[in-house]
Amino acid sequence: MDVALAVALGGDCLADVGMLRAEPAVFGPVASDPTVSRLIRRLAAGGQRVLAALRMAQTEVREHIWKLAGDAAPDADGQVVVDIDGVLVLAHSEKQDAAATWKKTFGHHPLMGFVDHGRGGSGEPVVGLLWPGNAGPTPPRTASKPRRWHWPSCRGRQTLIRTNFGGGTHEFVGWLARRGRWLSYSVGMTVTDAIHQAVLKVPASAWTPAVEPDGDIRDGAWVAELDGDGLTGWPRGVRLVG
Fold first, then answer.
1. Looking at the domain 74-188, which fold is it?
2. Where are the domains of the chain?
3. pLDDT tens sequence across 100-152
4. Does the CA dihedral 144-146-147-149 come out positive or negative?
5. What SS3 class is residue 35?
6. Residue 41 pLDDT level (bands cut at 50, 70, 90)
7. What is the pTM for the complete model shown?
8. C-alpha–C-alpha distance, residues 166 and 176, integer Å
9. Beta strand segments in the chain, E
């Protein structure tokens, strides 16, 4: 619990539990550094068995918290929105898999999944894949290991998966659209020459003002559905909106 609180307060190493000891009236007795180290060693020794137990505990806690949140829960309207994106994490010294990033910094580039809490809240991190810093802005492994993801419990709910153009690969979209998956998805697409030419052919009368999820019109943004050869080879039913 002390380690979890330290992370929630911005800590980035085990020694940061020390900040809790500065406020004994708030946090009470806090585990010592040797106690924390022994805990981490025991968890690490458990391997996959410990990971499975932690994931089960996370799922149970998340479902309980969402139930307590009522109308404020991210699934209150019957749909769960999961955003997938890479996040640059800076490192100030040599660490495992730390490398020069595509933004000319140094650190790691994990791929994260966040449950969207709407415009009035922040995303809730639910899953992550650890990648080295030199994985690039749109790592090809975005689509290569979907089975390793442990999604939030969304059985019986509408689940929308969203990514930027890094997720616009045949492999990843094919995984999302696989029969029996029951997922909705919205992924970005690389603007190929064929898509560029299709956009140029859209008549002015076909463009419609873009609308935010809450119904507000987004200033300066217009959308239109594209046809032609831009969707050749993609799963049946996919629509291309520019």
1. Nucleotidyltransferase; domain 5 (3.30.420)
2. 1-73, 74-188, 191-242
3. 998 889 999 998 889 988 777 778 888 888 889 888 765 544 444 444 444 55
4. positive
5. helix
6. very high
7. 0.75
8. 14
9. 79-86, 89-90, 99-100, 106-108, 111-115, 124-129, 158-163, 184-187, 208-211, 217-223, 225-226, 240-241
